[in-house]
Write a structure and sequence with these properties.
Pfam families: FeS_assembly_P (PF01883). This protein has 183 residues and is an alpha+beta fold. Helices cover 17% and strands 31% of the residues. The protein is globular and about 50 Å long.
Length: 183
Amino acid sequence: MYSRSSEPVRFERDCDVVLVPQGEEVTLPAGSIGYITQALGGSYTVFVEGNLFRVAGKDADAIGKEPPEPLELSAGASDDDVEKLVWKQLRTCFDPEIPINIVDLGLVYEAVVKPRDDGTREVEIRMTLTAPACGMGDILVDDVRSKLELIPTVTEADVELVFDPPWNRTMMSEAARLETGML
């Protein structure tokens, strides 16, 4: 949440953002002033007028930040190389309220890279949420899909949101449990 160490920002242009935790898409007008409360995975959580908003990495310029660099994959990369990049990208996906990536939170149950005849690939993801009623669920799914489709040769990411088995804190990595105090 906002603290005295949060970085102040001013929106340089109108910017589509997502209200946290409701998941509602809104537009903040140019000139809005706020504070960055979380900057992880290429997106930003910004506190403006008593509310939290998620600014996507592609819109980083609206708050004076650089958008993420394009992903690169060597020519002739194997499916294993792509799978490693898939897991790396998944670790750039964060719940706007929790400073831990979705992999270490234990939200990703499965990631499968499927080669296609035309040399492209499809990625299938099975993931869950910390709570079924999470208002950010659709936003997280879209974040996963869009970040995976940035990987060269990946033409489609199919992200399935599942609730069986239900998430619990034992699914978190040890580092994530330590970070959240859930040992």
